[in-house]
Structure formats: C-alpha cells, structure tokens
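Final report, closing paragraph on structural work. Over the funding period we assembled a curated collection of sequence-structure pairs, and we close with a single example.
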Amino acid sequence: MKILFVEDDTIIASGLCYSLNQEGYDVTHCLNAAQAKEELSKSSFDMAILDINLPDGSGYDICQQIKETADIPVIFLTAIDDEVNVVMGLDMGADDYITKPFRIRELLSRIKSVTRRYEKSESSKTVLDFGSLKIDTAQAKVFKEHKEIPLTSLEYRLLLIFAHNQGRVLSRNQILESQWDFAGDFVNDNTLTVYIKRLREKIEDDVHNPQMIQTIRGLGYKGGN
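Its predicted structure, as stored:
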C-alpha cells in the first residue's frame, strides 16, 4: 500500500515513517503542501495521512484535492482537536481524525480499520470500471462499448485482480498466489503468461501497446495507468 504522509515536524515524521515501513507500507513523506501537491500530480496513492497546519497551507486543501480526483482513505493527524475542526475534516471526506500526541499502535490500528472499510465498500460494487471496460460482477460479465466480451473463468478472475488493483504493480508470484485460482485449477508461471496474452487479445485496443495490463519489466504487471 502506498501512503502519502504530510507532516512538517521532522521528528514525528521520522518515527512514523520508520514504523510504517516496518509494517510493509510504502511511504512518501512531504514536509509541506507544495511538496504534497507535486507528488499527487505525478503519483497515485492508496491512502493519505495529513497534518492540518502546514507552513504553506492546510491539510484541508490537500484533502479536497485528493477527493476531487481519487476515492482513497484520508486520515488527519493533528494537534487540533476541537469539535469544529474535527467535523470540518470529516465533512470534507476524511475517514478518520487522530490527535497528537498519539501512540503508533493506535495509528496502525486506525489505518487497518479504514482500509478494511474501503475494501468492503469496493467489494460491494456490482459494476467496476477498468479502462474502457465495464465489469458486471453480479453477472460475471465484461462489456466494452456496450458489447459483451466472452471470457473463460480463469480469464475473468485474472481480469478482476487487475481491476481491483488498478495502478499497482503486481509480481507474478502475487498473481499466482492470489485467490483468483480458487476453483482448484493449477496455474504455473508459463500458464499465467499464456492467459495474460489471451486476455490482452480480448480487451486491449492494441495488443502490441497494452494499456490495461502493462508489463513492468523485472517486476511484474500493472493494471491500468
């Protein structure tokens, strides 16, 4: 999980970045609003942890920018704990609000709790947008420009992995070990290559320049841009 962390206190930031990295999170730390906005313009994130009072602006502004372009969880981390500011932050779309001083384990617990809520919300969606595709999970059907694309069960489950992880690089092992093979079919590395090739032939506009399933050399595959 990629986390955008905006905090101007270097001591707090150093400790928190270390703890998050130890838990397996990929953290991008910014000291001010300008740095945060620059990172948002060039990278995608799965979560944002934002201080409110910043040297050159407000965490509220960053939250607003995030919510205008992406549906990701936002946690405010701040010394301001009065009700007005808490309500303002939540009304702007923040998912949680933690006041300083705080315990690292509490923050980690809040992160996991917010993530579970988002995963549950995402899994309840019956139609997923993936590039030019619409995936109707209720009927297990895939459409492109209103025309159904016939997929095998394995191709469909493989497509769902990329649709649920858009913008993320997945290693071949992550894909092989995932639950998309729950039917009991044995899928090895060579079989995965064949299925990705077949899936691309069905969903991509140009199989020689794939956009929905991109090969990231030396790492694996990425779904979407």
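Confidence is low (pLDDT under 50) at residues 179-186. The two ends are 17 Å apart (CA to CA). We thank the funder for supporting this effort.
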